């Protein structure tokens, strides 16, 4: 589809000539001789660009520009002007005009400006589309859960999003800390600003300092040019520091200053920079416990812990698993398929029984795997990763059907059942032997002996 252009000029010869030449270039062109007719056309049709003269009868080009921008700010306006009114054309660009062109001009000169304007419009539209796409990822309906803990968490996020308080999100790996941080940002007054994410665990000390605060040219080997850090890039928006517990102690002093004063210097720099940024941090560790051990600054902990948010692990909210399964099925099943695949009762029992050490992220990966292997048979045990198929084996060993069994080696079966039960306890407690002994109902010394024997 060709781009639509409207020409507004009371000089008949100029207007007709431009319309004719632009049509030859493949544009869909309309033209009028006054601003009132121009606005009528704009309200009845969709135009990409309006090319208007500054001097028009009744309503001038500047007034038309303001009318257009009030009606639809996405329409690009290019101002035509005589040399004597260039100052007015510059003023028009400050009012929202994309560009201006001085008469007399060649058609080629105008076409170049139009091409640039359309490229700018397409780029802006793509940026807007991507922003909406990213923002939709962090809508509240994408934080799946109807358990009491999740309802309370969502209520907290809604309540504090539009404040500028520093937030500390605590939760195991895979629980969705980044999704919560994004929900806070995109439901705040800063949502049109940047949302900058930093994984503190993924960077060594030297790189981390430069990543956070930037560096000056020549400040260290390889610093061939000045580079802005993540805090500068986040100015006007939010910065999300994941695994904040991995920031070295000596660098924590600098982070503390940023939180308190919103100022810092780049690595190797002397100029103090000021920023307006909201700080959201996340950790999978107990920061207060680390502070008591001297492994994390206690004063920094209290600065970060203004609004604490704790995300429960999936094993503590298993009632949410069916909802999450349905959510991920919608994500991974092709939009061309008529309906979501069914999940067998046997498969759901396995997914409900499993302890999910990788939390929601692990469940997401499992459902993606299952969809890839489901074909037309739905989600069954056979579509699950191999390690989850063994969860069902545990169940069969404990509740055996012996109706068709003639003989059995009691010692071997008991040994196998004992082994499976200990594996189950290990999974449920993440290997904590005190808790393993407790849920198995045996003394810890007995558990140790069995672990040694089963190795």
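^ structure tokens above, recovered residues below v
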């Amino acid at each position: 589809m060709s781009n639509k252009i409207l020409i507004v000029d009371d000089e008949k010869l100029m207007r007709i000539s431009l319309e004719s030449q632009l049509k030859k270039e493949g544009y869909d062109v309309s033209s009028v001789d006054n601003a009132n007719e121009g606005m009528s056309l704009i309200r009845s049709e969709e135009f990409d660009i309006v090319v208007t003269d500054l001097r028009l009868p009744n309503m001038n080009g500047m007034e038309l520009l303001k009318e257009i921008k009030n009606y639809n700010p996405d329409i690009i306006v290019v101002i035509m002007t005589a040399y004597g009114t260039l100052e007015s054309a510059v003023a028009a660009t400050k009012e929202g005009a994309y560009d201006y062109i001085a008469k007399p001009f060649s058609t080629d000169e105008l076409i170049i400006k139009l091409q640039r304007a359309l490229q700018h419009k397409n780029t802006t539209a793509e940026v807007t589309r991507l922003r909406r796409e990213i923002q939709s990822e962090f809508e509240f309906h994408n934080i799946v859960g109807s358990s009491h803990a999740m309802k309370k968490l969502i209520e907290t996020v809604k309540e504090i999003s539009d404040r500028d308080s520093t937030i500390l999100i605590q939760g195991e790996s895979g629980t969705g800390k980044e999704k919560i941080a994004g929900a806070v940002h995109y439901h705040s007054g800063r949502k049109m600003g940047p949302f900058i994410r930093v994984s503190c665990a993924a960077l060594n000390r030297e790189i981390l300092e430069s990543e956070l605060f930037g560096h000056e040219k020549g400040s260290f080997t390889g610093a061939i040019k000045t580079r802005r850090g993540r805090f500068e890039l986040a100015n006007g928006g939010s910065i999300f520091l994941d695994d904040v517990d991995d920031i070295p102690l000596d660098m924590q002093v600098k982070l503390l200053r940023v939180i308190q004063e919103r100022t810092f210097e780049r690595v190797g720099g002397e100029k103090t920079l000021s920023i307006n940024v909201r700080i959201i941090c996340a950790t999978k560790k107990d920061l207060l416990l680390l502070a008591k051990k001297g492994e994390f600054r206690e004063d920094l902990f209290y600065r970060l812990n203004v609004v604490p948010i704790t995300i429960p692990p999936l094993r503590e909210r298993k009632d949410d698993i069916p909802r999450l399964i349905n959510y991920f099925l919608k994500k991974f099943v092709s939009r061309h398929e008529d309906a979501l695949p069914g999940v067998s009762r046997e498969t759901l029992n396995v997914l409900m029984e499993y302890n999910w050490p990788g939390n929601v992220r692990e469940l997401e990966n499992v459902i993606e795997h299952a969809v890839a292997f489901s074909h037309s048979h739905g989600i069954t045990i056979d579509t699950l990763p191999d390690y989850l198929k063994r969860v069902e084996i545990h169940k069969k060993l404990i509740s055996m059907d012996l109706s068709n069994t003639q003989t059995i080696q009691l010692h071997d079966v008991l040994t196998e059942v004992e082994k499976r039960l200990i594996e189950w306890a290990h999974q449920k407690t993440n290997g904590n032997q005190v808790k393993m002994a407790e849920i198995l109902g045996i003394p810890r010394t007995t558990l140790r002996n069995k672990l040694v024997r089963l190795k």
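The mean pLDDT is 88.
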